[in-house]
């Protein structure tokens, strides 16, 4: 994931060379379109809820759906990633339970938990969680495999 600089002033502030997306009149990789879809889903949660909720609650509800149902094992206790995954709706653990684990987050395949991932589990790098958080959407595991 690269940082997104739409306005010229943002490029200048961050010492980025070249033209901004606004100057080029492009939306590199459809990021603005993606955000619009995300905002529409959040708006739907907010407007279709039978009880009057604050839009901040609608944001939390949407975030909790991103990795809902994912059981993730970490090969090291990275509290930032762990919290990020839980905020996205995942269940996190440091112990591998073969029947419920769907994903193992690792930097390389050296531990027992990492090897568990080779048995019909996803072995992904930490960027998988970061990308899901950044894009507010579960990302394809094959793009974040540590074997890539």
Characterise the protein shown here.
There is one protein chain. This protein has 148 residues and is of the alpha/beta class. It has two domains: 8-62, no CATH class; 67-144, Rossmann fold (3-Layer(aba) Sandwich). Helices cover 42% and strands 9% of the residues. It has seven helices and four strands. A four-stranded parallel sheet has the order 2-1-3-4. Helix 3 (31-48) crosses helix 4. The longest helix is centred in the N-terminal third of the chain and has 18 residues, at 31-48. The radius of gyration is 18 Å and the shape is flat.
Features:
2 domains, 148 residues, single chain, four-stranded parallel sheet, Rossmann fold, flat
Summarize the structure.
Residues 62-146 form the BRCT domain. It contains 7 helices and 4 strands. The chain is an alpha/beta fold.
> What pattern of helices and strands is seen along the backbone?
HHHHEHEEHEH
CATH class of the largest domain: Alpha Beta
How many runs of DSSP E, i.e. beta strands? 4
What is the residue-averaged pLDDT? 79
Biggest beta sheet summary: 4 strands, parallel
Helices, by number, come to 7
Lay out the secondary structure.
Layout: H1 8-13, H2 21-24, H3 31-48, H4 55-65, E1 71-74, H5 79-87, E2 91-93, E3 103-105, H6 112-116, E4 122-124, H7 127-135
Parallel strand pairs: 1-2, 1-3, 3-4
Helix pairs in contact: 3-4
């Amino acid at each position: 994931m690269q940082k997104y600089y739409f306005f010229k002033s943002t490029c200048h502030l961050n010492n980025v060379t070249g033209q901004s997306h606004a100057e080029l009149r492009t939306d590199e990789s459809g990021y603005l379109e993606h955000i619009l879809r995300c905002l529409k889903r959040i708006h739907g949660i907010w407007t279709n809820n039978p009880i009057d909720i604050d839009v901040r609650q609608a944001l939390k509800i949407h975030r909790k759906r991103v990795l809902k149902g994912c059981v993730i094992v970490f090969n090291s206790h990275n509290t930032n990633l762990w919290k990020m995954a839980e905020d996205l709706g995942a269940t996190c653990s440091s112990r591998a339970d073969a029947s419920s684990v769907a994903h193992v987050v690792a930097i390389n395949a050296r531990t027992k938990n990492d090897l568990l991932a080779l048995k019909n589990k996803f072995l992904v790098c930490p960027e998988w969680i970061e990308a899901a958080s950044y894009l507010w959407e579960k990302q394809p595991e094959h793009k974040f495999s540590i074997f890539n």
